[in-house]
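agent: user wants the structure for Radical SAM protein from Paraburkholderia caribensis. delegating to structure tool.
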Amino acid sequence: MTDYDRDIPEFPIAPPAPRKGRGAVTNVQGRYEVDQREAVDDGWIAPSEEESGRPALRTQLFEERAKSILTHNQSPDIPFSVSLNPYRGCEHGCIYCFARPTHSYLGLSPGLDFESRIYAKVNAPELLAREMAKKSYVPEPIALGVNTDAWQPVERDLKLTRRVIQVLSEHNQAFAAITKNSLIERDIDLLAPMAAKGLMMAAITITTLDVDIARTLEPRAATPARRLRTIRALSEAGIPVGVSIAPVIPFVTEQDMERVLEACAEAGATSASYIVLRLPWEVAPLFKGWLEAHFPDRAERVMNRVRDMRGGKDYDASFSTRMKGEGLWADLLKQRFANAVRRLGLNARNHGILDMSHFKRAESPKPRTPATPDTPQLSLF
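agent: tool returned. relaying C-alpha cells verbatim.
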C-alpha cells in the first residue's frame, strides 16, 4: 500500500434513508442474485428524500396471466390449506411482511420493489371458475389475501378481488379474508349475504393504535382508527370479524396489545389472534434497516428480545414455534393475550367454522367461438 492509498479514507456504509410513503428503506438484493452490491456514503447522499430532492417512488402495475390460482399447503401451524392471492407484491409496504421474499423469484428486490412493482393476476376469476368446474375439485374453505393484501390500493380501480368474490358467491364457495385496508367495505354487498349463509368471515390486521408508528410500519395501509371503523362496519353488516395482531414487535408495538384488543372488542370483533414478529430470508435485513432509520435508540434492544424468542437467532422456521416464539418472553406474551381475550369475551364463539354444504359446482367453461366481423369478441377487462 502506498502513502497515497493511506490518505484515502474508506467510504462507510450508507445509512438507511427513509422514502416518503414507503416501508423499506433499501432495495436489498434478492437471495438468488449472483452479484452483491452495497451502498456506501461518499458524502453526496442526503439523509432524506426531501433533502436529496429525489422524486417520489411511483408504483408500477404489471398485468400477468397466471397458470394457476389456488395455492395448497400442509403446514400444521396454519389454519387453512388452500389460499388465493390476486396480486403479487403489496403497495401497503409493511416492513415486516413475510411475503416480501417472494419477489426474489421474479428477480426483483424484496425491498422497495416488493411495494412498488405490483403484479395483478388478471385472469384470477376465470382460473377460479375453471378450477371449481373440475370433477376432481374438492371444496374446502379458501383463505383470501393472506400472502399479499387482496384490497391493496390498486384494487380500487382494478376490482380484481371483487370479481373473485363474485365467482365465490355464485358457487357458494366458503372463504375467509384478511386485510388491513378499509376498501373491503366496498364489497359488503357481496360479503354480507355469504356471511348470512355461513360462507364467509373476515379478519382485520391491527398491529398498533399509535398512528405515528403505523405510518412508518405500514405506510400505505388504512390508519388504525380507520381499521376500527371497518371492523364496526363489517360487524354491523352481520359479517363475523376478528382482529389479527400481527406481528407483535417487542418494544415497538408489543406494549399496545391489550389496547388493540379492547378497541377491537368495543368495535364489534368477536375473535382475536396474534403472531410474533417473523423475519425469514430478506425480511431480517430489511427490518433491521427500518429499525435503524426510525428507532435507532432501541434497535439493538428490539433485536435482542426477538432473538430471545427465536432460540438466539433472528428467525426460526420450526412449525412448532415460528408463529408464537419460545422461551420466557414468548410465554409472557401468551399469558397477556389469553388474559385479555378472556376478560373481553373474545374467542368465546365458534367463529372459525364455515359451511361447505352449500357448494355448487361450476359448469365447465365452453370454448369461445372465434371472433368474426358479425360476432365481435367482447373484452373481459
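agent: one observation worth passing along. The two ends are 64 Å apart (CA to CA).
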